[in-house]
Each structure stands twice: as structure tokens, then as C-alpha cells.
Design goal:
The structure holds 2 protein chains of 2 kinds.
Chain A: H1 2-77, E1 83-90, E2 97-105, E3 108-114, H2 117-124, E4 129-135, E5 139-150, E6 156-167, E7 172-181, E8 186-193
Parallel strand pairs in A: 1-7
Antiparallel strand pairs in A: 1-4, 2-3, 2-5, 5-6, 7-8
Chain B: H1 19-26, H2 36-39, H3 46-59, H4 63-75, H5 79-82, H6 84-96, H7 100-112, H8 117-133, H9 137-145, H10 156-169, H11 173-182, H12 190-203, H13 207-220, H14 227-246, H15 250-258, H16 267-280, H17 284-295, H18 302-318, H19 321-349, H20 354-360, H21 362-368, H22 383-386, H23 388-391, H24 394-432, H25 437-465, H26 469-498, H27 508-593
Helix pairs in contact in B: 3-4, 4-6, 6-7, 6-8, 7-8, 8-9, 9-10, 10-11, 10-12, 11-12, 12-13, 13-14, 14-15, 15-16, 16-17, 17-18, 18-19, 18-27, 19-27, 24-27, 25-26
Classes of the chains: A alpha+beta, B mainly alpha.
């Protein structure tokens, strides 16, 4: 009996001793971890600082390069005399939740787009989307735009409009605009040739 | 809007902004409302249309695309782009895109020009913002002091908010208090400004004023349904509880803690503090439900780890060894699982594309991860519970933002690399183009066909005239559309006839294109070099964070194992004692019988 009791007491003592040493070890470890974490943070910031100028320069170069490439590409694909760009705009207001657009040029479906929430918001805040760029020869053409979306009270809308236009010998724009009519703020599509 | 840059942390408070802070950094601290008045106008010129494309990307926070679009319209001398407000917008976009040096140049150049007061004040505002985020408080304070007279209405509230932040940062307490009186209590920022003020007051040792400010924040948010304000209120209550606890007022702390929501951003910390406060008040039964809630959450949370050990300890103190033993056994199981998760997280982060995936999906990860982690996550999402603390850190955030920009550039240049093959193809095809006899035959045939169609149409028109009025009406639409089609055909034939030879690209294009393509390769190489430098940094930061988790869990695991052994030993001793007593009684009884 006494032996058992002694074993129990010793083991409890050992457990407490181990517990104490574990606690001390853990406390030491926590300090080491914190300092290692801070060191890693400092190193990260130092690395960033050392390459920050380089990254800023790279960003600047990439913006310029994109601009040059885009101009070059447009020159190759869309000579200024035949270039024709189509834009989508929207009047500010929450009366119409734009879902999609389809564009037909001279009877052919040439562009479709489904809008994300971010794009819808950007449009209603005054942003203009460049929907389509193509080459059109001089002369008469027809464009038809179809919009789908939800109006007030979740009512589904399908809006469409057509424009006949004559393309000149310079780059031209077509604006597909969603505006709101009258007091009821009924959405409607307007097409304008620029 | 996630604008509460309550970026002061007071150690005694122990309430650091975590995810909220992260959002601030990721969503690029600055709000630019330049040209918002333009929104209200209709498009009046073709220039407006092109300028609108800049705004389209800008409003979506696609700063790289917006800057490219800006340069494109600027090259076309778009008057909006060259205007003062246009330049102001560019400065803002550069700043948001991490090109602080370039943006600083633009803002400073705007101050040199003879600009109107509103633009000048906006430029000073953005400069102050820039310096503030560069932690150059003196320059930030000087810049904000330069704002005088009219300020753009869109920037009015932001200006006040920044001014209070800068004043707080620069320890200009009276200034902050004065600015607060100019800000409407209905403003979105008011609660955040008040909160920041309370921290400054606390730092200045004005405890009572700090308590009053925090109480205001807590009560202001009562009527709010805005989750951000509710979170801020919880944060204020937790802060109040910490202050009152430090002053020994456990009852008040208890009351503050009771009002904190159990599912909000601060619930983990609040539940743990609640449990400790209950223990201090010797209300052990009150502490247990709080610890039980924590016990069900992710093992990756330090509060949960502590709660597991504390719960078992509480049962032991309460005199329920069986419950204590069970809790310890469950804790051992949870810690073992947690350590396995850390191991898995380490394996995942070592995979090749993980930093890229992590950065690309960051918004989704943060958005989907319920930060109190009731639901388990999969794959690289497994990392997120372990990096919640890390994502709030400055170093991690900055590295992540730069890496994110570099990945965007990489993808942009990759796309151009693909396009470059098409460019070469277009040039080659253009060189091969020539007018053969076939084309002439086609034009002649089209001409003949057109004549035939015109004749047929004339016949049709004559035939229609012979019909009655109703039938004529029915066919009039058909004749009209045929007329339109014929007119289009005519216009095209005319165009083709006038073309003497196919369009040929100028010879210099080939050379120019080759140079551009070389540039793409160079820039892509440079981008990959920077990515290769930053990916190990992210990996190291995450691994260091995982080390912290691992060590803490090992410590708690050891604690639980020791507690389990102790409980077993105590039980053995009790059994032994009981057996000894029973034997004694038996001996006594036997002696009595004799």
C-alpha cells in the first residue's frame, strides 16, 4: 500500500515538475516565436523596400508598354479610316439592372456581353464601356442593340433599338445609351452616332 | 465602406484590428471621388465617351487597366485627361496602384500650377493621405494644415476623417477634439473617428474621457444595422471591459462583456475574457457556457486552444473529475488534429502555385471564411484560419499587395506574348495580300447581280401597283427593306470598285513590332524575377506563423496530457484509499466477530 501511495505521490510530483518545466519551455518558446515572427516581418519589409523602386518602375513601364502595344495593335487591325468603336453608357440611377447586351452590325451578331455587379455599378456612376471595335467601310450601315435586364419591382425588360448610319472616311463611334424616360423612369435604349 | 483605419493599437487594450485592417490595405486605402460631378452629366462629346472608359475601369478598381486607358486617351489629347481634375485622378490611381513616387510627382506638380482652390485642396488631401500611409506624420500634418477654403464636397467627410487620424497620430489631441465637433454625428465616419479619439485619450492617460468616448461608440451603434458599426461597438465594449478590469471593477467589465455579440468579429476574445471574468467573480457556472461556445470553434484560433485547457481545468476545480477528464481527452484529440492541420497547411504552402492562388482568391477566401471558423475549409483555404492574425500584419499585407500587382502584370504580359504571335501573322498575311483577277471577277459579278436584283425589285414594285390597297400596304415593308439592302449592296460595290490595290502595312511596322515584342519578354522576365523574390517571403511569413500555432498547440497538448495523467493518478489514489479503508473496515469487522 505504502509503495503504491509513494508511486502515486512521486508521479504527481513528476507531473507537476514536468508541467512547470513545460510551462517555462512554452513561455520561452512563445518569446522565441514572437521574435521570429517580428524578424520575418522586418525581413519582408526590408525585401519590399529594396525592390520597391524597381517594382514601381516596372509598373510604369508596363503601363507605357501596354499603351504602345494597344496603339500598335489598333494601327495594324483597325486603320483610322475604317475604325469603328461601339460604347455602352447608362444614365445614373437604380431603375434598371442591366444584365446583358447584344450588338448586330449589318444584320450580323458581332458582340455580346453579360454584366457583373461591378460593371453595372461602374456604368451607373458614369463609366463607359468599350464594347466592340471593328473595321467598317465608308457607306451605309445598320446597327441594332438589344439589352436585357430588370426594371423596378424586378420586372424583366428586353430593350432594343436600331440605327441606320453612314460611315465616313475617319474613325467613328457609336454610343448605345440606356436612359430613363419620363416620371416613371422607364428604361429605354438610345443609339447615337458620333 | 471599410474605411475604419483605427490603426492605433494600445497594448493594454489587446484588441487589434484584424480582418478589418486587412480590408483597408487590400482595398487600397484611398477613396478617390475626383470627377464624381461628371457622373451627373450626360455624354456631350466623343471625348466624354473615351474619358468614360477610364472611369469604367477606375470605378471597378482595375487600376492597371484604368491607367492604360488614361494614357491612351491622354495620347489622343483628350481634354478631360489633360485637365487638372484628370491629372488629379491619375495621381489617385497611381497611388492606389502602389506607384506612390509617381503620384507624389503629379500632386506636387498640381500645386505648382495655377490651379483652383478645390483642386489644390484635393492635391493636399491626397498628399497628406500618402504621407500618412508612409508613416511620415510630420509631413502628413503639414499637408493637411495646408487645406484652406473650399474642399470638394465629395472629399469633405474623408478630409475630416483623415485630419482626425493625422492629429491623433501626431498627438495633437485638442485638434482632434475640435475636428470632431465639425463632423456630423450622422456621418459614416463619426463612430470611427470617436473610437480613434478614445484610443488617443487612453494613450494620453485620460481614462475617464476615453471611457466616455467608447461608451458613445457602443451606444451609437445600438440602433445600427450596419454590421461594421456593430463590430465596432463590440470592439468598444471589449475595450471598456479591459479598462474596467484593469481598474479592478469586475462587475462593470462583466456587464460590458455580456453585451458583446457571440458571433461577431470580437466574440472569440470577448468569450474568453467573459470566462476569465466569471472565474474572477467565482461564477464558474457562468464561465462554462462561454467556454463551450469557444470549444466548438476552429482549433486554429488561440482563444479556442486556451478555452479547451481552461474548460477542463474549470471542471476539475468544480469537483467534476469525470467531466474534466473527458474535456482533457477531447482537447488532446483536438490539439492532435490541429497539429495535423498545421502539417497539412505547411504541405499546401510549399506547393508551386499556392501563393498565386492565395493572392488571386484572397477576396473570396476572406469573404467566405467565417473568421470564427465554425465551418471547416478545404485545400488552400485550410490555411486561412491559421493566418488570420498574419493577414492583419503590415509586412504580410504589403508583400501580398505587391505580389498581387505583379501577378496581374504577369498575366497582362502573358496575354501580350500570345498576342504577339498574332501580330506577326497579321503582318505576314498583309504582305501576301494582292489584287488578283478573281477579285475583279467577283466585283463584276456582284455588279451584275445588283442590276438583276434592281430589275426584279422594279418588277415587284410594278406588280404591287396592280394589287388592292390592303395588299399594297402589306408588301410595302418588304419593298422598303429590299430598298435598304440594295442601297447597302450598292454602297459596298462602289467602295470595292474604288480600291485600286489592297491595303499594305508600312514596312517600318515589322521593326517596331519586333522591338515591342522584345520589350514584352524583358518586362515579363523582370516581373518573374520579382515574383520569385516575393513568393519565398510570403511562404516564410506563413511558415513562421504556423510555427507559432504549432508551438502553442504543442504546449497546450502537453498541458492537457499532464492534466489527464494527474486526473488518472488522483483517481488511482482515491481508489487506493477507498480500498485501504474497505480493508480496514473488513479487518475491524472480523476482529469484532472474533
Amino acid at each position: 500500500m505504502l509503495k503504491n501511495h509513494l508511486v502515486c505521490s512521486i508521479s504527481i510530483f513528476v507531473i507537476f515538475a514536468l508541467g512547470l518545466s513545460t510551462s517555462l519551455f512554452a513561455a520561452k518558446n512563445a518569446d522565441v516565436d514572437t521574435s521570429k515572427g517580428e524578424q520575418a516581418q522586418q525581413q519582408a519589409l526590408a525585401t519590399l523596400k529594396s525592390i520597391s523602386k524597381g517594382i514601381q518602375g516596372l509598373k510604369d513601364d508596363v503601363v507605357s508598354l501596354n499603351n504602345e502595344l494597344r496603339s500598335m495593335e489598333e494601327t495594324l487591325l483597325f486603320p483610322s479610316s475604317t475604325k469603328y468603336s461601339v460604347f455602352v453608357s447608362m444614365s445614373p440611377g437604380d431603375y434598371f439592372t442591366l444584365e446583358s447586351v447584344k450588338l448586330k452590325l449589318d444584320g450580323k451578331l458581332v458582340a455580346t456581353h453579360i454584366y457583373s455587379q461591378g460593371q453595372r455599378q461602374a456604368l451607373s456612376r458614369g463609366g463607359v464601356q468599350k464594347l466592340y471595335i471593328t473595321n467598317l467601310n465608308e457607306g451605309k450601315h445598320t446597327a441594332t442593340a438589344f439589352f436585357t435586364g430588370l426594371g423596378p419591382n424586378g420586372r424583366a425588360y428586353k430593350l432594343a433599338n436600331t440605327i441606320d448610319f453612314e460611315k465616313g472616311n475617319a474613325g467613328e463611334f457609336l454610343q448605345l445609351a440606356i436612359r430613363y424616360k419620363g416620371d416613371v423612369q422607364e428604361p429605354a435604349v438610345y443609339l447615337k452616332q458620333w | 465602406m471599410n474605411i475604419y483605419t483605427a490603426n492605433k493599437s494600445v497594448s493594454s487594450f489587446k484588441i487589434k484590428l484584424k480582418l478589418s485592417k486587412l480590408f483597408i490595405c487590400i482595398l487600397a486605402c484611398f477613396i478617390f471621388l475626383v470627377n464624381a460631378e461628371k457622373v451627373e452629366q450626360d455624354i456631350e462629346t466623343a471625348e466624354d465617351l473615351e474619358w468614360g472608359t477610364v472611369l469604367f475601369d477606375f470605378y471597378q478598381k482595375n487600376y492597371l487597366s484604368a491607367l492604360i486607358e488614361y494614357d491612351y486617351v491622354h495620347a489622343k489629347d483628350n481634354s478631360m485627361a489633360t485637365s487638372q481634375s484628370g491629372r488629379l485622378l491619375k495621381g489617385g490611381m497611381l497611388l492606389s496602384y502602389g506607384m506612390a513616387d509617381r503620384s507624389e510627382e503629379i500632386f506636387e506638380s498640381l500645386l505648382d500650377d495655377n490651379v483652383n482652390i478645390s483642386v489644390r485642396n484635393s492635391a493636399w488631401y491626397y498628399l497628406a493621405n500618402l504621407y500618412y500611409h508612409k508613416a511620415d506624420n510630420e509631413k502628413a500634418f503639414n499637408a493637411i494644415q495646408k487645406i484652406q477654403g473650399d474642399i470638394s464636397p465629395q472629399l469633405h467627410t474623408e478630409y475630416h476623417y483623415l485630419a482626425t487620424l493625422i492629429s491623433s497620430q501626431g498627438k495633437h489631441l485638442p485638434n482632434t477634439e475640435k475636428l470632431l465637433t465639425t463632423l456630423s454625428p450622422t456621418s459614416h465616419y463619426y463612430a470611427y473617428v470617436l473610437f480613434n479619439l478614445s484610443i488617443t485619450q487612453l494613450e494620453a492617460g485620460k481614462i475617464n474621457q476615453a471611457i466616455a468616448s467608447l461608451n458613445k461608440v457602443a451606444s451609437m451603434s445600438l440602433s445600427q444595422t450596419n454590421p461594421e458599426l456593430v463590430t465596432l461597438a463590440d470592439r468598444a465594449r471589449h475595450g471598456l471591459a479591459q479598462i474596467t478590469l484593469r481598474e479592478g471593477d469586475v462587475i462593470s467589465a462583466w456587464n460590458y462583456l455580456k453585451s458583446i455579440t457571440t458571433t461577431g468579429l470580437y466574440s472569440n476574445r470577448a468569450l474568453l475574457t467573459y470566462a476569465w471574468t466569471a472565474i474572477k467573480l467565482k461564477q464558474f457556472q457562468q464561465a462554462i457556457p462561454a467556454l463551450n461556445i469557444l470549444d466548438e470553434r476552429s482549433i486554429a484560433l488561440p482563444e479556442v486552444q486556451e478555452a479547451k485547457v481552461l474548460l477542463a481545468h474549470l471542471y476539475e476545480q468544480e469537483g467534476s473529475p469525470r467531466k474534466a477528464l473527458k474535456s482533457n481527452l477531447l482537447a488532446i484529440e483536438a490539439f492532435t488534429k490541429g497539429l495535423e492541420d498545421v502539417k497539412e497547411a505547411r504541405r499546401i504552402i510549399s506547393l508551386q502555385d499556392v501563393p498565386k492562388e492565395f493572392v488571386s482568391n484572397f477576396d473570396v477566401i476572406v469573404g467566405k471564411t467565417d473568421w470564427y471558423a465554425m465551418e471547416p475549409t478545404v485545400d488552400y483555404l485550410k490555411l486561412t484560419p491559421f493566418v488570420i492574425d498574419l493577414v492583419a500584419s503590415h509586412g504580410f499585407n504589403e508583400t501580398l499587395t505587391e505580389l498581387s500587382d505583379l501577378y496581374t502584370i504577369q498575366s497582362n504580359l502573358d496575354e501580350w506574348s500570345t498576342q504577339s504571335k498574332e501580330h506577326v501573322l497579321i503582318l505576314q498575311n498583309a504582305e501576301r495580300k494582292s489584287f488578283s483577277n478573281d477579285q475583279k471577277v467577283i466585283i463584276d459579278k456582284s455588279e451584275m447581280l445588283k442590276k438583276k436584283l434592281v430589275n426584279q425589285k422594279a418588277d415587284l414594285e410594278l406588280y404591287v401597283l396592280t394589287l388592292n390597297e390592303a395588299d399594297q400596304k402589306r408588301l410595302s415593308a418588304l419593298i422598303e427593306s429590299t430598298n435598304k439592302e440594295l442601297a447597302l449592296l450598292d454602297s459596298r460595290i462602289l467602295q470595292l470598285k474604288e480600291v485600286k490595290k489592297p491595303y499594305q502595312q508600312p514596312k517600318k511596322y515589322k521593326k517596331i513590332l519586333a522591338e515591342k515584342h522584345k520589350k514584352i519578354k524583358q518586362k515579363l522576365q523582370k516581373t518573374n524575377q520579382y515574383i520569385a523574390m516575393l513568393e519565398p517571403v510570403i511562404r516564410k511569413l506563413i511558415n513562421t506563423e504556423l510555427d507559432k500555432h504549432e508551438n502553442r498547440m504543442l504546449y497546450y497538448l502537453a498541458q492537457s496530457k499532464l492534466a489527464k495523467a494527474r486526473l488518472y493518478d488522483t483517481t488511482l489514489m482515491l481508489l487506493d484509499r477507498a480500498k485501504k479503508n474497505s480493508n480496514k473496515e473488513k479487518t475491524k469487522n472480523n476482529e469484532g466477530k472474533k
